[in-house]
Structure prediction request, 845 residues.
Amino acid sequence: MGIVTRLVAQRLALGLLLLLAVSVLIFIGTQILPGDVAQSILGQSATPQALANLRRDLGLNEPAITRYFSWLGGVLTGDLGTSLTSGGNILSEISTRLANTLFLAAVAAVIAVPLAIFLGLLAVRYRERWPDKLISAVTLSTISLPEFFIGYVLILLFAVQRQWFPSVATVYPSMSFLARLDAVILPALTLTMVILAHMMRMTRAAILNVMQSAYVETAELKGLSTFQVIWKHAFPNSIAPIVNVVMLNLAYLVVGVVVVEVVFVYPGMGQYLVDHVSKRDVPVVQACGLIFAAVYIGLNMIADIVAILANPRLRHPK
Amino acid sequence: MSRELEFLSRKVAHGKLSRRDFLGRASALGVSAAFANTLLSSAAQAAGPMKGGTIKVGIEGGSTTDSLDPATVTNSTGTQVSRLWGEPLLELAPHGGLENKLASEYSASADAKTWTFKIRDGVTFSNGKKVTADDVLATMQRHSDENSKSGALGIMKGIKNMSADGDKFVIELEAANADLPYLMTDYHLMIQPGGGKDDPAAAIGTGPYVIKDAEMGVRVVAEKNPNYWSDLGNADTVEVVVINDDTARMAALQSGQVDMVSRVPPKVAGLVGRAPNITVRSTSGPGHYVFIMHCNTAPFDNNDLRMALKYAINRKELVDKILFGYGSVGNDTPINDSYPLYTEFEQREYDPDKAAFHLKKSGFDGTILLRTSDNSFPGAPDAAALFQQSAKKAGVNIDIKREPNDGYWSEVWNKQPFCTSYWGGRPTQDQMFSTAYLSTADWNDTRFFNKDFDKMLFAARAELDEAKRKQIYAEMGQLVRNEGGLICPMFNDFVDGTTDKVDGWVENHKGFQLMNFYAPMQMWLAG
Prediction:
């Protein structure tokens, strides 16, 4: 397993290097945002004097390089700084939001991933027949509709017309797990519909690809049932591309759901980031950017590592 | 009319008959829905407020970057939440004039330069501490200190000295101001213990509720303050949920997840109001949507060009198509009948001939660039396009540049010479004029520099005779209307929505939306 450890260590190191590069980009990006923090915080009703006072208090007059390194130093020691607008500790503010985002992502993933893979297997089993076509048609339609539209349709059907689920998915710390689950069911369903097609189609394509191989033909000739062939012989060999696409969608569930958050009034990271961008609260924007980047890089790294472990050729290179 | 109806309406008020059934019976008796509703609300008022329960408010305009510090409040959620836990010295009365809150009485010296506020006796903050004139003094100092970040800093200018004397708080002004009491109603000026200098965001005040849980930009939960000195506050708990998305807010109202919402979009107000359990509440106010020109920047430095543009806009069309009728026609002054000393002028109409005449006289024959964005007011880009069309018929060519929402208030408004914007209005003409039309005003967003106007503003401030003040304000209004850079096509109504679970709405309440944000406290759960 020495080689595997080395490969994994290599991936980890690359990931960290990438994260460092991203931190530079995030910092530059936040510096070139147009607009003024003080004006954004105090709004249209700010007088020039109040603005000048606030700018001085926020220490916006230091050079950018100094600010980058003091920020990076803080991040490495687990200190994300204080928010310019609320004056609170960013780490503690973000952790509730991040937990909410991860909860919604987890619920959506728990529904969507097994469903997508199962539907993919089903589509392969009945390929080019009506179940395959139906599955593709339905999932491709839901992915083609904008997510806010799906959200509004679900709200109309299940919150306004029959009041089964709440339309406002506000969650708060003192809520019980079941109440939380009830609150996020509509946004989770919306997200499921958005990511289902991608994973389902990839599963289908990957397995169909393997189904062309000689050993699958052998398995069939041995007299195994179609489903056994798919599950035992084809699926394990197509796991790498499937994991890849699953990870991509999980990353999307964490970093790209701001529209769904807005429609369902869900207090996640996306809305938090957007609010702070519009207020030019740079430390918070940087922290969110870094967390999103870490999630993205981390999940892709996991996909890579799984691909390595699942592929004997990568596990045992010549 | 029929005793039966009155009997039925009382039944509804006591929760023994649903509102829907009542309306059905009323129409069977040949009564119009509007009249039946009036009957219903008067029965509810007569039955008196019911105590207890939880009232939920879905509100537009809140962000995760908000703070509970009243000095930094800039949006509706902040104003609503401050009203729950805090109180100013004075507040706008529902139908004009002022209401005493923490000041039990107030008086002015004959020259209107010294104002004395007597602090209400026996009121305690929610931390148990007694309210003193020193707390009031410290609060006012925090908002008027020159290092202050308070949104009220602008209106706290011109104070020579403030002092606390026993149970009296005294303000001495540099120049007379007959409207000073109105300034004390500002939503930033919540009285806090020790002025909130130690912990500005502690939300400790004398309001009818106490904040129990606050997650900014998400939700705030407040419980009844057991020691509140007055009878405001019917529900045990008020929950404010921030729902910025219009459709989500309407869905929350329709599904009964909230009992009232602010800002029903005029576009869907008719549709939403058709639901049997929802009432759309339209309240006229001082807010207005505007096109603003810089009077000192070419080509707008030519009054004939400004007049050409003023005649080239079709105000009625904008009220119909942008406000969907939820508003009234403007007259190129920022003042309408919601101000106490309002004088009506002859209505300026859309007149392509006059516009063409003034355009020719101005000698300008180029194209005018109008900047707009979605957030400058709802429907602003559409309004700009309608203006472009109506102006074209008068030979005035307007180009529209769509600016991003993000950064509009810091990069375009009050910087570019011609753009769309909005004003929320102020409780008095003095405040509105001194905020945006006085030569030295920070937000003189039309760059209106007129010595006569400034002189009249100060004269009116010092004038305690109302008739004379009214006369001066009328002249000032004419100056802005005929020489200023303001094109004010419309005053927008506040449009709120309530479900039939709550009762006690007061029509045409002065101030802001949701009965000046007192609806969650003043209304009650029906039945």
About this structure: Chain B has a mean pLDDT of 90. Chain B has four domains: 2-47, 54-64+207-275+496-525, 87-196, 288-492. The longest strand of chain B covers residues 159-165.
